[in-house]
Amino acid sequence: MMTNKYTTEHYDHLDEVVHKQVMDNGLEVFIIDKKGYNKKFVTYTAKYGSVDNHFKANGEVHHVPDGIAHFLEHKMFDKEAGDVFNKFSEMGASANAFTSIDRTSYLFSTTENFFENLDLLMNMVEIPYFTKEKVDKEIGIINEEIKMYQDNPGYRLYHETLNAMYENSPVAIDIAGTLESISNITADYLYLCHKTFYAPDNMVMILAGDFEIDETFNYIEAHQNNRPDYEPSNIERYFPEEPYAVKTSKKVMELAVSTPKVMLGFKALPDDSDNETREIRDSAMLFALDMVFGEQSPYYEDLLDRGIIDDSFNFAYQEETLARHTLMAAETDNPETFTAEITRIIDEVKEKDFFTEKRLQSQKRELMGDYLTSLNSPEYIANQYTKYYFDGYDLYNVPKVIDSITLEDVKRYFNSSIDTKNMVEVIVKAYE
Fold first, then answer.
1. Which of 16, 73, 116, 295 is labelled catalytic?
2. 33: phi then psi, degrees, rounded to nearest 5
3. Which residues of the chain have pLDDT under 50?
4. Prediction pTM value
């Protein structure tokens, strides 16, 4: 009989409970207890993303082809016995996976055969199977995927904006890689990256739903104790120094579009702020951008009335360990006017007392309402808990962070995070 080794944290302000156990091999497992829920949702995630192309593992330095994390994600479903996707479906589960700049996540949801599906997930992720024939076939499949994305105006707009902003950072690398980089991927590279980054102490598992806690932890522990040999990850990642200035201030492309598209990128390099400061800045920027450019803003109404923007207009702030920038995009017949107006508004807001406490409190209530509603979804909880964990945050501390943000935070972070003199403009227009 196994002894319970997990700890439990109660978030009384949200009536939420999280159990955590670190397995003997280093794997961290969190069970988010949602009593009465029929669906169970699991994510199994490696701290391994598209930026991890230069690293030192167990004393040896490696450079691997761009796009290999995404390629590896694809190949983990392909086993000697066939496609694991089909096995999940046969057992009543819906499975998926994705790769981002800093993580690769495998997931499933189910209302039946939970432990069978959990075992399938762990075996799939932990036991690699690559052959030259299967790798060569996948190269052809992903090459077609890359070509398809190259013809997608929205996709190209986003990635060309990143490429224009970042000089050296691997953040600008397309997650799928390039036609050239993909052609250099081999089974040996895949085995190397799997051994390095899929080590248990470099992974985290999140389970959300109604579980028998002792039984579930014991099942995972027994599996981990019997898994194939592994080595501690001992990963040292290398990232080149990134200058503050953008690489290219303007780029124009021709693609098959009916209306020109434009994206503005405002670069602001990551700094040495602690996780708490970064989380506050992330939320404060969300509030600031919505106050200035959201649908309730007088600036938004003016731009809409004058036909400079339509409902395609969107904006976002990204705060990551390796990336910090603001993006704004729209479909418009006059991209130059759009750019001029956006930069004018930003500079004008910085010069006057635009932000108000009333609007900030309104936004806090709105965000809290959305947040609390989302906590009813096991899918949202498992995915967001994973993301927050990787960013060094706690999903269940969001209310305290929101409550702590002041009007001064909003002003300060808006002024320091958006520099109109350090901006890129990328335009996609129709073929002439």
1. 73
2. -85, 110
3. 1
4. 0.94
